Amino acid sequence: MHYEWTIEALKHKKPVLCEKPLAPSQQQAAEMFAAAKENGVCLMEAFAYLQSPYVKAVAEEIQKGSIGGVRYMHVHFLTSDYDRSNIRMRRETLGGSMYDIGVYASSLILRLLGESPEQIQAVAAFDDHDIDKLTTVMLEYPDAVRAVLTTGMVMATEKNKSSDSFEIQGTEGTLRSDNFTFNGKGELSYHVERFDGTSEYKTVAVPNNYMLEIEQFGRCVAEGEPPVVTETISIANARLVDSVLECIGY
Question: Pick from 77, 131, 165, 175: CA 20 to 30 A from residue 97's CA?
């Protein structure tokens, strides 16, 4: 329903903060942004975690070369299984792990590596309702840089539990998430371990990401501030998801 009602709101000159994933496909996402431009109003995809100062801090570590050039990145995001009445568990409402939580992992890779992959390979395990319950994706970049994401709704049913982690290997060291959850708040940390033997744990104070998201979107509307979750990231992520779903036969 995102595509239809976002465009309807944009036509009525209403700025839209649209829940992730923005649209079922890159084509629809592009049409939504085109409608925003045509009507002169702001559209932003609601990835609250991308507003986090933790994500910004990790990105800055990569950009300043704390672990050298990136060679490999892995993101792991698993959640509880759900009852069959949940929209996440039905094909007709675009259920499955890639659409629901895989988009977190893929958008984090895009945010930190800063470009789209050249090649994508993926495999998935489907349940008897024809949704992907567990999906693994391999992304290949220029110069033999690679990234892998694993996402699934495979933990204990209706326990509201998750397992969130990432690791980035560089030419001079490794950066690993320590105390981290997507959309987590509080004191979140990561570990930088360099091949020269130095090691550092760093902690970032993170307020409520949804608060940060609303405040930032307000500034976009009232002051013309550029969205943190850019059109470029949203379109690239939708394109990546399209490729993954094609690979796994969704």
Answer: 175
Distance CA 78, CA 16 (A): 29
Within 13 Å, how many C-alpha atoms sit on residue 131's CB side? 25
Two structure tokens written together for 222: 């009232």
pTM: 0.96
Query: pLDDT tens string for the chain (250 positions)?
Result: 999 999 999 999 999 999 999 999 999 999 999 999 999 999 999 999 999 999 999 999 999 999 999 999 999 999 999 988 899 999 999 999 999 999 999 999 999 998 889 999 999 999 998 999 999 999 999 999 999 999 999 999 889 899 999 999 999 999 999 999 999 999 999 999 999 999 999 999 999 999 999 999 999 999 999 999 999 999 999 999 999 999 999 9
Q: Which two tokens stand for residue 89?
A: 């568990």
- Per DSSP bridges, beta strands 162-170 and 70-80 are antiparallel
Q: In this structure, are residues 101 and 77 in contact, taking their beta carbons and an 8 Å threshold?
A: yes
Q: Is 115 helix (H, G, I), strand (E, B) or coil?
A: coil
First-to-last alpha carbon distance for the chain, in angstroms, is: 19
Distance CA 163, CA 69 (A): 27
Residue whose token pair is 């792990």: 97
